[in-house]
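FORM 7B: Structural annotation worksheet

SECTION A. Query
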Amino acid sequence: MKTTQKKCPSALIVMTPQERKEFLPEPLCSQLKALLPDAVWIEAPVEKTEWPRLLDTHRPEVLICAWETITLPMEVAAYLKYVCFLCGSVRSLIPRDLIKNGLLVTNWGSVISDTIAECALLLTLSALRRSSNWALAMHTQGAWKKGRHPDTLSLFGRRVGLHGLGAIGCELVKLLVPFRTPISAYSPSVPDETFKELNVRRATSLEELFSQSDVLIDLAPGKPSNYHLVGEDLLNLLPENAVFVNVGRGMVVDEEALVRVNKNKGLHLALDVYETEPLPKDSPLRGLPNTTLLPHLGGPTPDRRQDSGKVALDNIKNYLNNDPLTNLVTVEAYDRAT
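SECTION B. Predicted structure
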């Protein structure tokens, strides 16, 4: 059945020049202009005091924006119907009640899963090869290996455990195939069919997963029930010389427990997310031996942000054609985000 395209809505597009360059390189920018020829383009950031007046002046039905757009006032409920957010969490942009009261919001959804999986693989290999230790020592201490038996490990054949088997986990399984790693996962809500298709063994408990994984990669969502779910008891179940990677949510892991287990049993850590971000300068994770730290770089690199732009264009077309939107941010998804 052919859908009926709605009258071209009033639209506001708010981005910094850099965001526009990364998310909407040509021909995407021209395609967006063709879809919304009367849209008003505003350069971000907008002054906080000017933002409500600007919105009320244009009263857009559609808002397209990225990271540098500041929080929407509740008054936009009178005219704003759809926010096409080019990035991830919308918590700093959209008050929860706007979504609860029917505002349509989409984000980049799972399109970034492959780049986060790529980062997880990078962190895993870095921890196994102790590259963080060696890079620092070689740069600052003139270090070199002693003898022919360095404290390094290979990923090939090593048992990998995934705490979570959502979109990122599924992409990571594909990347691990060449390493011939037996993979287990704990993800109760994922159906058996997914485990079978990916050739992943289902762990029946987190205790089983941690105790039987040489590399444990945490991908669990940041829902309230997962707060500090990974603590000292689970971390101590990891085998000798194990690697713990977190590219999921910082709040899932008790960071004080991470530090203690690192010191007590030599656990190797590789982290991209933290309970407090930016990571405080006095965090005990800084300077910790056998620890690789990244400043939340797991999402799409600038050269891959155009993938999100393509998804946004598809959603704009869907909105204009009264077709279903993809990557809708529900109240439940909003509450899980950081």
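SECTION C. Observations
The CA atoms of residues 163 and 218 lie 5 Å apart. DSSP finds 13 helices and twelve strands in the chain.

SECTION D. Sign-off
Analyst initials: ____
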